[in-house]
Amino acid sequence: MDTLTHHQQGTGDGRTAARERRTGRTGATRRRAAAVTAMAIAMAAPLTLGAAGDAGAAAGGHRIVFARYTAAAPTEDLYAISPSGGTPVPVPLTHTPTVSDVMPSWSPDGKRVAFVRYGSGGAIDGIWTMKTTGGDLKAVPGTKGASDPAWSPDGKRIAYAKPVGTQRELYVADIDGTPATRLTHTAADDLHPTWSPDGKYLAFSRADAAGHSRVMRIRLSTLTQTAVTGSGSHDWTPDWSRGNRIAFSRVDSSGFAHLYFVRPDGTGLHRITAARFNDKNPSWSPDGSRLVFTRGGTDDADPEHLYLVRADGTALTQLTKTDSHDLEADWRP
Fold first, then answer.
1. DSSP state of 301
2. pLDDT tens-digit readout, 157-195
3. Which terminal Cβ of the chain has fewer Cβ within 10 Å, N or C?
4. Cα(first)–Cα(last) distance of the chain, in Å?
């Protein structure tokens, strides 16, 4: 069974299951996470931003932010990297040995990053924002257990997924956390919101109890919901471009996850990648010509690297090459 199909079936608590759906991680990572929690309790270290300061100050030209963990450093931290040529070196933005920082999202002006931070015992759990240099951390109130933050095009609001009972529903709030408005009320898991360029819609993944997921669209003014991709599919992690195309990851008939894009009305479906690898978490470049995405990750022993590709599937380039798991990249607007 391939990784994405496995995690779509959902296991564990709501936040863990949602995180697995988004990242493609499996039971091996849950065991790793348990070890991390035990380590965090044993260390009982105060939460600090760590040594990101001077290195992070150089991050202005590094336009892709992502989460990374390694065997030696099993808690995730955030890094930034340039998509330009040569041999780019990631710049660390956070260094928190007892907590995980994941799911980064750029503000539209490129000055701050929203992300999910969580640690042992629930003391640190929710959405935070920080400067792109890694400083000035601010928690977003009311986001305990939340995941998948997405900054609105006007920079004033943030959309996210949050547990309601055993399901996850979509919310939107001002960047200070108030007022939080619940957008969806279903028996399915609603995950990974992404804004339309005009800020009037969100696209998102809806996962049902049968293990299927499809891309949906919701109009914020009326909460009217429309399916973008068909039922019975395995479609995850949509990202809406300024050129009004939605990229997403689909486990297709090959058994592997490939990148696709589609118009918001469901027409114009096009496959971008076709190799026998798992490709996930696409994020559009500002001009809509390229995507950054994660390739790999059949299990924790299989590294996951960032790649770049043109929207027509050409010019595939490997961006990160270390023995690491590089996930959830977001391209600066």
1. T
2. 999 999 999 999 999 999 999 899 999 999 999 999 999
3. N
4. 36
How high is the pLDDT of residue 28? 32
Q: Which of 62, 88, 86 is nearest to 78 (CA)?
A: 62
Where residue 313 falls (left for φ over 0; alpha for ψ -120 to 50; beta otherwise) is: left
- Cα 219 to chain center, whole Å? 22
CA angle 115, 203, 166 (to 5 degrees): 65
Identify whether the C-beta of residue 128 lies closer than 8 Å to the C-beta of residue 134. Answer: no
Q: 37: how many CB neighbours lie within 10 A of its CB?
A: 17
What is the C-alpha to C-alpha distance for residues 108 and 3, in angstroms, rounded to an integer? 32
Q: What CATH class is the domain 3-331?
A: mainly beta
Work out whether strand 317-318 and strand 189-195 pair parallel, antiparallel, or are unpaired: unpaired
Helix (H, G, I), strand (E, B), or coil: what is residue 52? coil
- Answer for the pair 197, 244: CB distance below 8 angstroms, yes or no: yes
